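To make this tangible, this section ends with a sequence with its structure tokens:
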Amino acid sequence: MRVVVALLGLLVASCGDTTGGALVKFSAVAKGATGDGPISFATGSGAKVSLDKAHLHVGAVYLNQTVPTSGSAPESCISQGLYVGEVYGPLDVDLLSSAAQPFPNGGDGTTTQARTAEVWLTGGDINATDDNTVILDLEGTAQLDAGTLPFTATVTIAGNRLPAVTDPSLPSADPICRQRIVSPLLVDLTPAAGGQLTLQIDSRRLLDSVDFSTQWPADGGAPASTIPDDPTGAGGGLFRGLHSSAVYQFSWSASP
């Protein structure tokens, strides 16, 4: 990811700030929030869902010492605060496993308190419009009053997620990178040498805004078993779930 180079510079620069600390290395893992194997639960929209497969592709994780001001204008994809930790992926996380799944490269940081975190959902360059990486891959069954629906879903974040340009004078006002970064996620931790950062991901909360009833056509025909990879209907709800702060929880331990 080309942007990673810039963030690394911000991380190193933070050591020269009066609030900065020493550079440290730490381990990092991700895991699902439920037990091992298929799970069943009720969603926020009222569906009874059983998940048999749930994988999330995490490109990177960043820790920041700044909390954005409420009501402030949207930031660029690079936060205006100081980055105090970074973890390189990629890591394909099995969300139906509670086992710790290590990031391949560990993490780098400074001994400075982190107050927010970012999860980057990207397969490469955060700014690339074209990226066919499957970010989320689901298989399961949803039960509603209309019937039982076996479903699959694959989510990508590319041109299909670019908002329509409403002001021709500002064609880059809402860049694709914003669609790939889940932020800000509130944390309270301080990186330290030899410690471990854990990202726990709750697959149940991913589906809270999915309206499965939109998979049934108005004419009463057969329902669609594939959730569309676009901003409409159930597909739009699933993408909103990816950006829900209820999905992601960070914790820190002094040792693995």
User: Anything to note?
Assistant: Helices lie at 2-14, 176-180, 203-206, 233-242. The chain has one domain: 2-253.
